[in-house]
Amino acid sequence: MGHIRYASDVGAPVAAAFAYAEDFQHAPDWMYGVSQIVARGEPGSGLGAVFTVKLRLLGVLPVRTTCEITEYRRNAVIGYTLRGRIYGTVTLRFDPLGYERSVLTSEADYPPPRGVFGRLCHGLVDAAAKSALRRTESRLRREIEAFHGTDLVGRIA
User: Fold this and answer.
1) Hey, which of 67, 88, 130, 141 would disulfide with 51, CB 3.0 to 4.6 Å?
2) What distance, in Å, lies between the first and last C-alpha atoms of the chain?
């Protein structure tokens, strides 16, 4: 099982950071490779919410997958489970860091590639997953700060 974890400081309080990340309509702006996300049924947020996600792998290969929120604690954590051709879990944790600042921790867990070809490409898959999570985390941080109107040190942007 592959596991990746990144943490970064965000120039916004936990409530603002969580509010931005919780709104699925913002996901194409920060989630790497996502071109469209559509809620399937009600609710559109919170535990049990299900979405259809259109991704572009490596920027060119279109893939459709299902995403469900399987872990949710308001102003603390959002956990996504991906099912389909792309599968695994992505968890976003929000912790207070001080006045108008918070810590965003992004984690991804994914099964190793299967089959002979999959085992040969294991290193490539790990590198691609690490790059995707790092880009997702840095984009989310920038978007939260723009949404809140501050930069990392809390200055008005």
Assistant:
1) 67
2) 40
Q: What does the pLDDT look like over 107-146, one tens digit per residue? A: 999 887 777 776 777 777 788 888 888 988 999 999 999 9
Cut 0.70: pTM above it:
yes
DSSP the chain: -EEEEEEEEESS-HHHHHHHHH-GGGHHHHSTTEEEEEE-SS-SSSTT-EEEEEEEETTTEEEEEEEEEEEEETTTEEEEEEEESS-EEEEEEEEEEETTEEEEEEEEEEPPPPHHHHHHTHHHHHHHHHHHHHHHHHHHHHHHHHHHTB-TT--B-
Determine the 3-state secondary structure of 1 from DSSP.
Answer: coil
Mutual angle of helices 122-148 and 14-22, in 10-degree steps: 120
